[in-house]
Design brief:
Strand 2, helix 2 (49-66) and strand 3 form a beta-alpha-beta unit. The chain has nine helices and eight strands. The longest helix has 22 residues, at 198-219. The chain has helices at residues 25-35, 49-66, 76-81, 96-103, 116-124, 149-159, 175-180, 190-193, 198-219; strands spanning 11-14, 39-42, 70-73, 86-89, 108-113, 129-132, 164-167, 185-188. The model has no long low-confidence stretch (mean pLDDT 95).
């Protein structure tokens, strides 16, 4: 895996058993990595802890071989049990500062934020990157906060010194807009894991991000 300061956040793929068309997390993520996923998050809300550890361990072995960071959503115990590269917490999960203390300085800490105040607090609490959103309305998280739009994303990107990954309703039609707003990458769920051809979907999104980033550099 890359060091924390050299992670490629371009295409951050989040697992979702309910959207994976009956395919295993392992099968989906193997295809996503083949298509160019650069970071993987294991997110599982319904499974028992033993099942989560087994699934996450299988992903850990796959991502380690591929040199792709594996982040565990919310469940710090699972992240530590499988020696994941990091953990991601939301505003209602374990406080970020406490998560940082428990995982130590070397693991990756991501924090979900929906406004500038939350973003600045997460930076202060030791976050390595932010998952900012929902940028747009998304059926993946029906309990999500109201969409912040590309303008809200842009404001946060402008003010924080750490990488921002845009999440929430991101797909091939708006990935370039998220990069243009200042995001280092896009986090996707259904756009990849629900695709009939996961590798092709990931490859398309990765190419869109690369093109948008090149365009942004030309404008600088």
């Amino acid at each position: 895996m890359q060091t924390k300061t050299h992670i490629d956040w371009s295409l951050y793929v989040v697992t979702d058993a309910g959207l994976s068309r009956g395919r295993s997390h392992l099968a989906v993520i193997e295809a996503a990595i083949a298509g160019g996923a650069t970071v993987v998050q294991y997110r599982e809300k319904a499974a028992a802890t033993r099942q989560m550890i087994a699934e996450a361990q299988a992903l850990r072995e796959l991502t380690r071989r591929a040199g792709v960071p594996l982040i565990v959503n919310d469940r710090l115990d699972v992240a530590l049990a499988i020696d994941a590269d990091g953990v991601h917490v939301g505003q209602d999960d374990m406080p970020a500062a406490l998560a940082r203390r428990l995982i130590g300085p070397d693991k990756i800490l991501g924090v979900s934020t929906a406004n500038l105040a939350e973003a600045m607090q997460a930076v202060q609490d030791g976050a390595d990157y932010l998952g900012v959103g929902p940028v747009l309305a998304t059926p993946t998280k029906p309990d999500a906060a109201p969409p912040i739009g590309m303008d809200g994303l842009r404001e946060i990107c402008r003010h924080v010194p750490i990488p921002v990954v845009a999440i929430g309703g991101i797909n091939a039609t708006n990935a370039a807009d998220a990069i243009a707003a200042g995001a280092q990458g896009i986090a996707v769920v259904s756009a990849v894991v629900a695709a009939e051809d996961v590798a092709t979907a990931a490859r398309q999104l990765r190419a869109l991000v690369a093109a948008a980033r090149a365009n942004a550099h030309r404008k600088e």
